[in-house]
């Protein structure tokens, strides 16, 4: 495990201390933060507009483990004019696809926990950005759509998948094989991921 560089961490902390932090994931981490009060869902091109809207207003992006490839960043456009903190176990990933202001080489989970502890010890109080986003965009709940809410009697695919997701047992394994419709399946059918409470709190 790489040893955290104090100078790298100081730069990251300086940016974070003045930032506003709702939470989003890349597609590979779908549902990892489900249930967190600031979860915006998946942030990938053509997926959740909610995540794109909030991130477009953010002044800082703290990225844990994601590669920042063109698919995740909309070829860099999503991250333009924003301070970027990039935490990754492999230091060779820093700057591979996108220049970042604060590269931090370290284990993602332990680094996130350490950052949270340092912010708490410093008496840092989060801004109201996440609450404001929730109020204006419905961040805290998914929009209710009737299964038959589609023209000409056509089934609304997203709503149908959401209907199934709400009624299937919570403890489940999910295997998706749906060809060109995989985006809806990833967004609406949730995998069962049980995290210890400290891991969820560290993302606050």
Write structural notes for this entry.
This protein is of the alpha/beta class and 204 residues long. The chain folds into 2 domains: 6-138, TPP-binding domain (Rossmann fold), CATH 3.40.50.1220; 151-192, no CATH class. It is built from 8 helices and 5 strands, in the order αββαβαββααααα. The protein has helices spanning 6-16, 49-57, 70-73, 108-121, 129-137, 157-167, 182-188, 197-201, and strands at 23-25, 39-42, 60-64, 83-88, 102-105. It has a 3-stranded parallel beta sheet with strand order 3-4-5, with helices on one face. The longest helix has 14 residues, at 108-121. It is elongated. The two termini are 25 Å apart. Residues 42-47, 137-145 and 193-204 have low confidence and may be disordered.
Nutshell version of this structure?
This protein is α/β, with parallel strands linked by helices.
CATH class division of the largest domain: Alpha Beta
What structural class do helix, strand and pairing data support? alpha/beta
Number of strands: 5
Mean pLDDT: 67
- What is the global morphology? elongated
Report the order of strands and helices.
HEEHEHEEHHHHH
> In DSSP terms, counting alpha (H) and pi (I) runs of 4 or more, how many helices?
8
- CATH superfamily (homologous) name of the largest domain: TPP-binding domain
Note the gap between the termini.
25 Å
How is the CATH topology of the largest domain named?
A: Rossmann fold
> For the largest beta sheet, what order do the strands appear in spatially?
3-4-5
The helix content, as a percent range, equals: 25-40%
Radius of gyration: 18 Å
Number of domains: 2
Q: Which architecture of the largest domain does the CATH hierarchy give at level 2?
A: 3-Layer(aba) Sandwich
């Amino acid at each position: 495990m790489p040893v955290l560089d104090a100078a790298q961490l100081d730069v990251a902390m300086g940016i974070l201390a003045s930032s506003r932090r709702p939470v989003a994931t890349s597609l590979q981490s779908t549902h990892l933060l489900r249930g967190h009060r600031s979860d915006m869902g998946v942030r990938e091109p053509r997926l959740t507009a909610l995540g794109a809207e909030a991130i477009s207003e953010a002044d800082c992006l703290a990225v844990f483990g994601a590669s920042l490839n063109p698919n995740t960043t909309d070829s860099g456009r999503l991250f333009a004019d924003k301070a970027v903190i990039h935490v990754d176990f492999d230091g060779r990933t820093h700057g591979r696809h996108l220049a970042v202001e604060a590269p931090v080489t370290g284990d993602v989970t332990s680094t996130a926990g350490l950052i949270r502890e340092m912010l708490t010890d410093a008496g840092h109080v989060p801004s109201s950005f996440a609450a404001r986003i929730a109020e204006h965009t419905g961040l805290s709940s998914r929009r209710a759509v009737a299964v038959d809410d589609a023209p000409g009697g056509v089934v609304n695919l997203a709503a149908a998948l959401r209907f199934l997701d709400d009624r299937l047992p919570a403890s489940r394994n999910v295997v998706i094989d749906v060809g060109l419709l995989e985006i809806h399946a990833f967004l609406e059918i949730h995998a069962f991921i049980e995290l210890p409470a400290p891991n969820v709190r560290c993302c606050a």
